[in-house]
Amino acid sequence: MSPEPAAGPREPAPPLPGAEPAHPLLDRVMRLRRRAREFDRRHPRVLDAVVAAAVALVALSDFLFGDGGRPGADGFPAFAPYAFTAAMALALWWRRRYPAAVFFVLSTIVFAQSVIGLWLPSRVSVLFAFCTLLAFHTLASIGSLRLFAWGAAVIAVEMVLMVLVLEDIDQPALSLLLILGTVTAAGALGLTVRVHRMYTAALEDRARRLEIEREQRERLIAAAERSRIAREMHDILGHNLSVMVTLADGAATLAGKRGEESAGALRMLGDTGREAMDELRRVLGVLHADERDPRSLSPQPGVDDLESLFERVRAAGLIVTCRTSGRLGHLGSGVQLTVYRIIQEALTNTLKHAGGPAAAAVTLAVDDGQVHIRVVDSGGDTAPPGGRRRETGRGLIGIRERAALYGGTATIGPNGSGSGWVVDVVLERTAALHGKGDSST
């Protein structure tokens, strides 16, 4: 029987409906956008410096080479426009570090320019307005919300005063509506960016927490399963040691009556066995501290109990067939317990996930050096499409832990039929004797 491929890397999940590949041009734009964000994350001051330099160069070129007249205001020095522009460009350089302070400085510059009647070329005026909107957007996206509310009130009052009182505009109502609408759009866009950033951060944090919780849950399940296996091994080893001590004491008594020299060695063997039992109780006995289930006092199940297990599973609605080969009765008690638990967990997993009606085929083979356990189910009518099931359950982790206990391997995954599932375990056992025999159930 050829083994199934190892259940290591999983097949990639199929794409979601409607998740077709993006257009090459859009894909290139998105890559450039990601690269720009990564560069800005590594060098945050470079972009601010580029924006400030662009504003200064555009304004200076318009001052020097524009044909709309020389900027200025009555009673103010000729360098006043240049000073206003330099102050605005310098403030933009600190835009993302001090968003509230930069916004109030820029809005004050624009309002002061209107109050003193400083005439600027139309392109520079638009540039000043754009810088103010950019600072307002930055305040909305990364600044304090309380200061953003104050900033909205301040810019609204300034715009009303500029349009209705300070500036001579033909249609002040329409102009005020357009200006306030533009300011509102800039603030709303900044708030949208802020909400999107918070939502993305929350999703990333939740993903990290879920990953940590999943890893912790798997570790706890594995630890609990190891503890359970250790308790069972404690019972098995304790029983075997008790038998060994009893036989050694009996043989020592008989040898003493016959006057044989081996009596002393047999008594030493019995004493050594009792010391080993005491040490075993000290090391593993603590695992029974929380064990209060009366069923823990019952004998551990083995291969002979598989038929009763199959009857219980059949009563739950699962069709189970079993085929065995080899001398199962010659397996050690620990190997028999492991075989029983692996088949039990595999059938339980089928009942939980396969849906009904479903069927499971169990194959148990014993040869000279291995015990081969294979459980294949049909998946049922309500099974997940493609045989996909969660592999983070306690049962499947327990199967792998039990297989590792005997140096074996466990292969768990879809069986290739579209909805079925296969559990294939090979144990390296030394407790089975040579021999063959076939039986079917």
TrEMBL record:
SUPFAM superfamilies: ATPase domain of HSP90 chaperone/DNA topoisomerase II/histidine kinase
Composition skew (Low complexity), residue ranges: 1-10
Residue stretches making up the Histidine kinase/HSP90-like ATPase domain: 335-425
Catalytic activity: ATP + protein L-histidine = ADP + protein N-phospho-L-histidine
UniProt feature coiled coil, ranges: 200-227
Organism of origin: Glycomyces lechevalierae
Top-rank taxon: Bacteria
Domain DUF7134 intervals: 38-195
A GO-annotated cellular component: membrane
MF annotations from Gene Ontology: ATP binding; phosphorelay sensor kinase activity; protein dimerization activity
Region (Disordered): 1-22
UniProt keywords, alphabetically: ATP-binding, Coiled coil, Kinase, Membrane, Nucleotide-binding, Phosphoprotein, Transferase, Transmembrane, Transmembrane helix, Two-component regulatory system
Ranges of residues in domain Signal transduction histidine kinase subgroup 3 dimerisation and phosphoacceptor: 225-290
TM spans (from-to): 46-64, 76-94, 101-120, 147-166, 172-193
Enzyme superclass (EC): transferase
EC numbers for this chain: 2.7.13.3
UniProt name for this protein: histidine kinase
